[in-house]
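ok so for the tutorial part 2 we go from a plain amino acid sequence to predicted C-alpha cells. step 1 is just haveing the sequence, like this:
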Amino acid sequence: MVATFETSDLSGSTQQKMPLVNADFLNKKPAKPAADAKRISIDDTERYINRELSWLSFNQRVVEEANNPRHPLLERLRFVAISGSNLDEFYTVRVAGLRELASAGVTKPSVDGLTPAEQLRAIDRDCRKLMHDEQESWAALQPALAAEGISLVDPRLLSIEDRKWLDEEFMSAVFPVLSPLAIDPAHPFPFVPSKSLAMALHLRRRGHDAELSALTIIPSQIDRFTRLPEPEGSTLVRFVALEDMISLFLDRIFPGYDVIGKGLFRVLRDSDIEIEEEAEDLVREFETALKRRRRGEVIRLKVSADTPIALREWIGRELNVGPADIVEVSGIVGVADLDKLIVDDKPHLRWSPYTPRQPERLKDFDNDIFAAIRNKDFLLHHPYETFDSVVQFLRQAARDPAVLAIKQTLYRTSSQSPIVEALCEAAELGKQVTAVVELKARFDEAANIVQARQLERAGAQVVYGFIDWKTHAKMSSVVRREQGKLVTYTHFGTGNYHPITAKLYTDLSYFTADTTLARDAGRIFNFVTGYAEPRDLEKVAVSPLTLKSRLLEDLEEEIAHARAGRPAHVWAKINSLVEADLVDALYRASQEGVRIDLIVRGICGLRPGVPGLSENIRVKSVIGRFLEHSRIVCFGAGDGLPGDSAKVYISSADWMDRNLNRRVETLCPVENKTVRRQILNQVMAANLRDEANSWILQADGTYSHGNHALSEGEKPFDCHEFFMRYPSLSGRGRAGTDDVPNLIENRT
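step 2 — the prediction. this is what the C-alpha cells look like for a chain of 748 residues:
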C-alpha cells in the first residue's frame, strides 16, 4: 500500500492525498536494459551526449512544461517566455563560440566526437524545432487565455474608441521616443543592438514614383505591450503589441508615404567577452569589453513570416547575415517578452502566493543569529525558508561592536543589494571588510563594477580574484571577539547572494561555527586574495585544486565497498554533468555495482541504463515551480543511503570542466547529524521521489515524463509542494518536526 500525506491549500483546507513513495526512484533497483538495447563501450565517444544538444533538450523540457495542465495558465505562459530567454543566451554565448571555432577552421571534435561545424548543424536543426514548439505553445495558450479574458488584440479588430485612445497614447508616449531612419547612400543602415526589435519599411511617396527604404528601431525603453483601458467593473485584460501600435500610425511617422512592404526583425549578437591575460586594470578592461560586446557580430536574425522576400534579403545583406542564419517566425517575434503579459489582477491563474518561512530556531534565540549558530549548525532551504536570514547574518555583523572582520564572495547579486549595503555599513563602522567581486559573471559584469566601486567608496577592500578563473564559491565569514577569543561564523551556500533569485531558486545555506571549516574558509579567501595555494585544507575541497580529486576518491571508495560486498550507493543533485573524467568514473562505478541516482536539472552528458556500461545509473531532471539549483553529493561509505555513515557535501560547483578545472569552487562536508538528516531524508529523498516535476533520461538521450499511473483521486508526489508545507529539520528549533512525514520508509 502506498503511504500518503494530506495536502492543503494556503488557507489550510485539506485536499487530495499525495503518495509518499516513488518506488521506481528510491526503493527499486534500476530497471534492466532491454535485451536488444544498444551496447556502448567505455572507450566509445558515443558514451557521451553532446553538451549543446543536451542543453537544448533541457530547454525543450521547459517548453513542454507550458503544455502541462497541472500548472496555472499564466505560469504556463511564463515557461514559454523562459524558454525564449534561455535560447537567446544560448545563441549569444554558446553558438557564438562554436561559430568562432568553425570560422577559424578548427576541426578537433569534442568528447562526443562532433566537430564545431557538425555541432552547429545539429544545433540549428534542434533549435528550429524548439522555436517552432515555442510558437506552437503560444498559439495553444491564446484560446485558453482569451477564455479567461486575457488577449493580445489583432489591431484589425480594434474598435473606433480603442483606436482613438491608442492614437492619443501613441502621440504622447511613443512618438517622442521614435527615430525613423531613411536608408540611402548618404544614410547607411544603422546599428541594431542585440535582442532589439526593428521594423524595416519599403515606402513610396504619394503622387511620385520615388521609393524609400527606412528603418524604425522599436524602443526598448517602452513596454512591449500596452494595456487597453476597460470600462469600470470589466475583467477583460487586453493588450496591443508596440510594433502593432507603430504600424497603425506609420502615417504619423512617414507623412505623405504609402507602405509597400514592412517586416519585423530581431537580431542576436555575439555576447562573449575576451580579456587580455595581462590586463593592468581589470575594471577598465571590462568596461571596454562590454562596449565591444554590444557591437558583436550578428549570429541569428529572426524575421516575421509576413516580411516580403525582397525586404528580408535587404535586411540580411545590410546585417551581413546569410540565409542559413535567418529564421522566419510565424507568430510573435521575441518570445522572451511574453512574460510581460502576466498580470497581477488574475491571481487564480498564477501560483498560489507563498511566503518563505522564518527559521524558528532564530526565534528561540531572540533573533540573535550568532547565538543560534553557536548553539548548533543549521541549514536553510531556500526559497522555502527566507533568504532574509542570510541578509540578517551580515546586517547583524555590521552593527555588532564585537565583530572585527567580514569576508564575502559576490558572484551575482541584485542591483540594490541588501548584502552590499550591509557590507558598506560594516566598512563605514570601521570593520575590516573584504569583498571578492567577480567581474567575469556573465551579463552581470556592469552591475558588479558599480557595486565594487560602491564598496570601495565605503572603505571595503575589494578584490577581483583571478584573471583566468572565475571565483564562483559562495562563502561568507564573520570574525567576532567573544570572551577574549576570536570566533569565526561561516556561511557556505550553493547559490548566489541574490535576494531576488533566492525566491525562485532552490538553494542551501549552511551556517556553522565549526573551527575547522572556518580555518578552511579563511585559507580559501587567502587563496583568492593573495594567490597562495592552500596546501593544508582540512575538510573543505576547492577547485581547481582538490575538489575534482575529492569526488573521484570518494567514488573509488564506493567501488571498493561494492567489490567487498558492502552497500555502495551515490546520490548527487547538480545542474549540469559533462566533465569527462567524472562521467567515466561514474561509468566505472556502475560497472562495479555501485548504485547511482542523479538529479541533473539541465545538461547531462552521461547515458544511463546502457547495458554493460551504466545499468546501475538513473538520471532525472526536476522542472517545476522553482528552479532547482542546489548542488549536493552523498556517498554511502559502506552503509548505503541514507545511512548513518554517509558522506554528505554541499557545493557551489556543477560537474562541468569549467567548474572543476577553471573556477574557484567549494565542496563543503556536512557533519552535523541534524543537518545531514535534513539533506538526506528531506531534500534528497523528496527530489528522488518527485513525480510531478520529473523527467527521466533514457539511454538514447531522450527524456520521458516521470508521472506514473496512479489510482483515481491520487496526485503525483510534488517535491516543491512538500517543501512548501513542511519545515526543515535544522531550522525548526524547539518546536520539533513531529508533523513532518518520514520520506524514508524502507532503505535498500
